[in-house]
Design goal:
295 residues, alpha/beta, Spore Coat Polysaccharide Biosynthesis Protein SpsA, Chain A, 2 domains, three-stranded antiparallel sheet, transferase activity, Nucleotide-diphossugar_trans, transferase, Glucosyl transferase
């Protein structure tokens, strides 16, 4: 078996405690194949709570790059990927040089800094990848504090959330980008998330492009981690807001900015793209308008 050299790609912004918890859980992984190395590449987008300084102090082997607060999450993930390609992918002991040695990584792991991995999460992901073959993306399902699945693979045009099975991998069409293992072979075919998507939808687009390139996507058995601070509902669905405010929220960068949503629909949902482009905005406006009429 060839050694696994894992490049972990993370972004952060004003979540110092959560980021440190995520990194600590990463360091405490068990059951990894012999010779496995990890190199963590963190891009911080203008934190004002001391996140970069705390990471450098407590996790000196992590490569930390600070960029402006105007850099969106998807863009920061691409920067972390670029850093992993220029600085190697493997890591080592806590005192190792940031970014790890110069040998090339065998896998990239997209890891959201709000996700605390369970102790055998990486072993689970790597085992699923090994069974699926080199042209496989493995998705880790994430639960909230109540045990409900909040991030996972997705299926169909409606992007239905895939529940993880207990002892087998589940196929999916695309994925949320919170915990995603990408092999070197898949990266060579698909690359990074597309730069047209600044915040959301870049992970969904990546999964669709991977599928077209002949890549399989699997949700690993069970949940691989927990994300306890997931918001209960998107902002545009908040009860009682007016039509204008609902439209402002749904078209914001945090939800469905029209240019990026149209690019996704045009690429992946033709000939239904015009209908699917308009439908989420229409639903939000109808909900807000009916809510005001009832008040």
């Amino acid at each position: 078996m060839h050694p696994v050299h894992l490049a972990v790609l993370m972004t952060s912004h004003d979540r110092r405690a959560r980021t440190l918890s995520a990194l600590r859980a990463l360091e405490e992984q068990r059951g990894l194949p012999a010779g496995t190395t990890l190199g963590v590449h963190l891009v911080d987008t203008g934190s004002t709570d001391g996140t970069p300084e705390a990471v450098r102090l407590r996790h000196p082997a992590v490569e930390v790059m600070s960029v402006g607060a105007d850099v969106a999450r998807a863009q920061a993930l691409r920067i972390a990927s670029r850093n992993s390609r220029s600085g190697g992918g493997g890591g080592g002991a806590a005192g190792a040089a940031p970014g790890g040695p110069s040998h090339a990584w065998t896998h990239q792991l997209w890891l959201d800094d709000r996700v605390v991995l369970f102790p055998r999460a990486l072993a689970n992901l790597l085992c699923t990848a090994r069974a699926g073959g080199p042209h496989t993306v493995v998705v880790g399902a994430v639960r909230n504090a109540y045990g409900d699945t909040v991030y996972s693979g997705r299926r169909g045009r409606a992007l239905t959330l895939v529940e993880p099975a207990g002892h087998r991998a589940e196929p999916c069409d695309t994925y949320d980008g919170r915990v995603v293992l990408v092999s070197r072979a898949v990266y060579d075919l698909v690359g990074d998330p597309d730069k047209v998507f600044r915040h959301r939808m870049g992970d969904y687009d990546h999964g669709r492009r991977a599928h077209r390139a002949g890549v399989s996507a699997l949700v690993a058995p069970g949940h691989v981690g927990a994300c306890v601070d997931v918001p209960c509902a998107p902002g545009s669905q908040e009860p009682g807001i007016g039509v204008r405010e609902a439209l402002r929220r749904v078209t914001s960068v945090g939800e469905l900015p029209p240019r990026q949503w149209w690019a996704y629909c045009l690429r992946h949902t033709w000939p239904w793209a015009p209908y699917l482009m308009v439908s989420p905005y229409a639903r939000v406006l109808a909900r807000a308008g009916l809510g005001r009429l009832r008040d």
